[in-house]
Design a protein that fits this description.
heterodimer; A: MetI-like fold; 2 domains; 14 helices; 74% helix; B: 301 residues; mainly alpha; MetI-like fold; 15 helices; globular
Chain lengths: 311, 301
């Protein structure tokens, strides 16, 4: 009995066949390979190619010629591009501040159980799931000069003097779009702040109010510092969205009037798919990519420091 | 859809079970409570007002709209909707969007969950590099690398096909989905899969019969944010889908908006209303899952 079993027990686990070992070695490839391949072809490779393409002059016909840094030189002197970057920075600052303030106010207002909390949350989040095309059409109508609801409303209230050509006037167009972008995303940022507020230890604010701290003091010295991580998340998401904004502007103004709503992605789109200058458009996109990378690293650093400072 | 709704049930149960510890009142004076209510009502009006005016106008006759763009419709013209449905080719657009969104969701869930399972199960050199290289792309929007993506797609001959948007949509959803799946798998007790292995279950069996059924909440969250972003995506569709027969809903709505019908506002508004209705209805039915799926995912990422 023992003699018959002994060899089987010792050899079987110690010496698996070559095929089994090979199979076990390759098994991770089966699990990870397909996903990684898709991701590599459609994300990694484009990002790498982006840098390469920005050193070329290429058209839609597929001819590619290496031109070195010539595109960057053109870009440096391209007033339209820098104008659109300035617009984009204004857009980013205005939307980030607007979204953060409004969403914080709404989250604070909503952060207590009362009947209707869920109803308000559902309403505020509604614009998040509506596509930019639909939102662009809704607000394109709201802002329309002749029939638009805003001017109509102003007329009825006897404030006709305030009526403006909101999207047709270079002074107002960008800010009108800023307003719509804030309208769409505030509910999203509010939900993130709400999650933060509900994770707060309740004892802290209660102890402070027993010690006589006013509502404002509790907000300023307890709630806001403890929310800094959520503020950081909100800032990053809003900033990334702002620098890649395209849909809303394409639907509402196409960059006009007089280029007053031109933004970085609009320029990239025009250069690539209207003028077929793929190489130069890649250069513009590379600069945008660098801006996005720098901004997100800076914001992450800042919020991390704030977080550690509090902890 | 079944995975989503069962994940939904689990989420609902958890919601009920949670103690409502923040119910205690008395910290705020009543004046502040009043201010709070006023703020909420004003904000809600700000969200609802444009949508209601828009819906009202979609039901007006063209002439009625031109003299009375703000008020109640003189008479409800439901025929607008039928006309818009036909002229904007709504049935084709909705079917196309369903195909694209569902394919994106399925590809993302299958490939990403397998990838997360592989990264959690096997200890091999380079797995951290793989994970990091995917997560690094979390903050880079697709728009920014559209041109090389376009060049690659030309070479793969998928420009102007639905696959041409499905694959980039799936790939761009992967970093966030990978974070969600990986975190979820790491929280599952390893004893479960070890026991199954000892009982003679294959790796695939562990993944398919044990890990995936236990991960319904994660699958639901990934399904929701992938579906919503694919359903609403506009930019890639604009670049990749030229044929009218394969265009998705947002692109088709935009094409309709800039076409000859733009002079007839009520008709345009009806078309847009039809286009946003499916998503709004599903959202209202499952708002809890939508809100946690969309915002919760962003928070973890």
């Amino acid at each position: 009995m023992a003699r018959a079993d002994a060899p089987r027990l010792s050899t079987a686990p110690a010496q698996p066949s070559l095929a089994t070992r090979l199979f076990e070695r390759c098994e991770p490839v089966f699990w990870i390979g397909p996903g990684l391949l898709l991701f590599f072809v459609f994300v990694h490779l484009p990002v790498l190619l982006q840098l390469a393409l920005s050193l070329t002059s290429s058209g839609l016909d597929g001819r590619i010629a290496f031109v070195g840094l010539a595109n960057f030189k053109t870009l440096w002197a391209d007033a339209d591009y820098w104008f659109s970057i300035v617009n984009n920075i204004q857009f980013a600052i205005a939307t980030v501040i607007g979204k953060l303030l409004l969403s914080l106010i709404l989250a604070l207002a909503l952060n207590s159980a009362f009947t209707g909390q869920n109803l308000f949350r559902t309403i505020f989040f509604l614009p998040v799931i509506i596509s930019f095309v639909a939102i662009g059409t809704i607000w394109g109508f709201m802002f329309q000069f002749e029939f638009g609801a805003i001017n109509q409303l102003l007329n009825r209230l006897g404030l006709g003097a305030l009526a403006q050509d909101w999207l047709g006037d270079p002074r107002f167009a960008l800010w009108s779009i800023v307003f719509v972008d804030i309208w769409k995303w505030t509910g999203f940022h509010m939900v993130i702040y709400l999650a933060g507020l509900q994770a707060l230890p309740r004892e802290l604010t209660e102890a402070a109010s027993v010690d006589g701290a006013s509502a404002w003091q509790r907000l300023r010295y307890i709630t806001l510092p403890l929310l800094s991580r959520y503020t950081g998340t909100n800032i990053i998401i809003a900033t990334l969205g702002a620098f890649s904004v395209f849909d809303l502007i394409y639907v509402m103004t196409q960059g006009g009037p007089f280029g007053s709503t031109q933004v970085a992605m609009m320029q990239v789109y025009l250069q690539a798919f209207q003028f077929h200058r793929l190489g130069y458009a890649s250069t513009q996109a590379t600069v945008l990519l660098a801006i996005i990378a720098i901004v997100s690293i800076v914001v992450m650093r800042l919020t991390k420091r704030a977080d550690e400072g509090e902890a | 859809m079944s995975t989503v709704s069962s994940g939904a049930e689990a989420a609902r149960v958890r919601w009920r079970a949670r103690p409502r510890q923040y119910q205690k009142r008395g910290v705020l004076p009543w004046q502040l409570n009043l201010v709070r209510l006023v703020i909420l009502l004003m904000a809600a009006a700000g969200v609802v007002f444009p949508i209601v005016v828009f819906l009202g106008n979609s039901l007006k006759a063209d002439g009625d709209f031109l003299v009375n763009p703000l008020g109640w419709p003189q008479q409800f013209v439901f025929a607008n909707y039928w006309e818009a449905w036909q002229k904007a080719n709504m049935s084709v657009l909705i079917v196309n969007s369903l195909i694209v969104s569902i394919a994106t969701v399925v590809i993302t869930i299958v490939l990403t969950s397998m990838m997360a399972f592989g990264l959690v199960t096997f200890r091999f050199r380079g797995r951290h590099v793989i994970l990091l290289s995917v997560l690094m792309m979390l903050t880079i929007p697709v728009q920014v690398y559209i041109i090389p993506l376009y060049v690659i797609s030309i070479n793969l001959k998928i420009v102007n096909t639905q696959l041409g948007v499905i694959l980039p949509y799936a790939a761009s959803s992967m970093p966030l989905a990978l974070v969600l799946f990986r975190n979820y798998f790491l929280e599952l007790p390893p004893a479960l899969s070890e026991a199954a292995r000892l009982d003679g279950c294959s790796r695939w069996g562990v993944y398919w019969r044990i890990i995936m059924p236990l991960s319904r909440p994660a699958i639901g969250a990934v399904a929701i944010f992938t579906f919503v972003s694919a359903w609403n995506e506009f930019f890639l569709a604009l670049v990749f889908l030229q044929d009218k027969s394969i265009q998705t809903l947002p692109l088709g709505m935009q094409v309709f908006a800039i076409s000859e019908y733009q002079t007839n506002y009520p008709l345009l508004f009806s078309a847009i209303t039809i286009g946003m209705a499916p998503m709004v209805i599903v959202y209202l039915l499952m708002q809890r899952q939508f809100i946690s799926g969309l915002a919760g995912g962003a928070m973890k990422g």
